[in-house]
Design brief:
This protein has 353 residues and is an alpha+beta fold. It folds into 3 domains: 136 residues, Probable tRNA modification gtpase trme, domain 1 (Gyrase A, domain 2), CATH 3.30.1360.120; 83 residues, Aminomethyltransferase beta-barrel domains (Alpha-Beta Plaits, 2-Layer Sandwich); 76 residues, Elongation Factor Tu (Ef-tu), domain 3, CATH 2.40.30.110. 21% of the residues lie in helices and 33% in strands. The chain has 8 helices and 20 strands. A 6-stranded mixed β-sheet has the order 11-12-13-10-4-14, with helices on both faces. A 6-stranded antiparallel barrel has the order 15-18-17-16-19-20. Strands 6-7-8-5-9 form a 5-stranded antiparallel β-sheet, with helices on one face. Helix 2 crosses helix 7.
Length: 353
């Protein structure tokens, strides 16, 4: 198990540590609900040192990346970023990631912790002359500062180091990388710096008023916004079209990309299933991954939850499941099997909040 460079900081703050994607990471400090509300109403800070940071560079970097990623890299200008996906030949998802352009021949990729090795192997196997890959994952620690007061906190903390624009990236002379995206639905930023310096940033940001938050709140926050989780809602057997991520798939790129032929064929024949948001319609235990979704008319099992939790904002269980297209219409009633009982639910629109 890997340990974050902030491991001792987490222990000192009383964090509960759990295994996650090969790392020992904090699941919560004061509690998932209070940390969730801190991000929705104020500002919180998450340790994201487990995530991977890759750099692709060289004269052919843009063309190369456009051939292996679903979004259109050519739309990026210096200092801009985009959500995109790396697919297999069948259109299934290897990883969803954020791609940033420092400059025309230098790109920064933030990838999921559990996919670093697979991403590196996949990119390396396709490298072209004039394009190089550098894995910075062991060099950087990372923080995500999220919430409506995140920008004010940073401006008071570092008035001479401005944040980039939304979905942007910047790099200081000292090598601190700032990104402006997020996985909670709130404004905020990500900070990447050397493992030797990241603890100082963490301590300063907490001292400035950010609530330390764990992976539990990160999960409930992203689920309320309908953001998919790799390995749960996204996998190598489901395509981004089925996951409702078609906006980030540019099938009109002249030279295509890995998996595009499979996606074009799927689009032509029509989708059979779609990642569908569900909400319980009455009081019930929290939803969890793996609970069966049942058609109340026939009793047939239509699928199972990929993600599920209690929404701290709504106070009800919410989740997502791949369901037949005929059952994905908003307002369609279902039953959720929770242990030996069934509870009513219905399809809703994303985001939940």
């Amino acid at each position: 198990m890997h340990r974050s460079p902030l491991h001792e900081n987490h222990l000192a703050l009383g964090a509960r540590i759990v295994p996650f994607a090969g790392w020992e990471m904090p699941i919560q400090y004061a509690g998932i609900v209070s940390e969730h509300h801190a991000v929705r109403k104020d500002v919180g800070v998450f340790d994201i040192s487990h995530m991977g940071e890759l750099e692709v560079s060289g004269e052919g970097a843009e063309s190369f990346l456009n051939g292996i990623l679903s979004n259109d890299v050519s739309n990026l200008s210096d200092g801009e970023g985009q959500y995109t996906l790396m697919l297999n030949e069948g259109g299934g998802v290897i990883d969803d990631l954020i791609l940033y352009r420092f400059e025309a021949d230098r790109y920064f990729l933030v990838v999921n912790a559990s996919k670093i090795g697979e991403d590196v192997a996949s990119i390396t196997s396709r490298l072209e002359p004039g394009v190089s890959l550098t894995d910075h994952s062991e060099v950087y620690g990372g923080l995500a500062v999220q919430g409506p007061k995140a920008v004010a906190l940073w401006e008071a903390l570092e008035p001479t180091l401005p944040l980039p624009e939304r979905n942007g990236i910047s790099e200081s002379d000292e090598g601190t990388v700032l990104c402006r995206t997020g996985y909670t639905g709130e404004d905020g930023f990500e900070l990447f710096d050397s493992v030797d310096r990241i603890a100082d940033w963490f301590e300063r940001i907490v001292a400035a008023g950010a609530a330390p938050c764990g992976l539990g709140a990160r999960d409930t926050l992203r689920l309320e916004k309908g953001y998919p989780l790799n390995g749960s809602d996204l996998d190598n057997t489901h395509t981004p079209l089925e996951a409702g991520l078609g906006f980030f798939v540019k099938l009109d790129k002249p030279d295509g990309f890995t998996g595009s032929e499979a996606l074009l064929a799927q689009k032509e024949r029509g989708l059979e299933n779609r990642l569908t948001p569900l909400k319980l319609t009455g009081k019930a235990p929290p939803l969890r991954q793996g609970y069966e979704v049942i058609d109340p008319s026939s009793g047939a099992v239509l699928g199972s939850l990929c993600s599920g939790s209690l929404s701290p904002t709504l106070g009800v269980g919410i989740g997502m499941a791949y369901l037949p297209l005929a059952f994905a219409e908003v307002g369609t009633p279902f039953l959720i099997q929770i242990r030996d009982r069934q509870f009513p639910a219905e399809t809703v629109k994303k985001p939940f909040v």
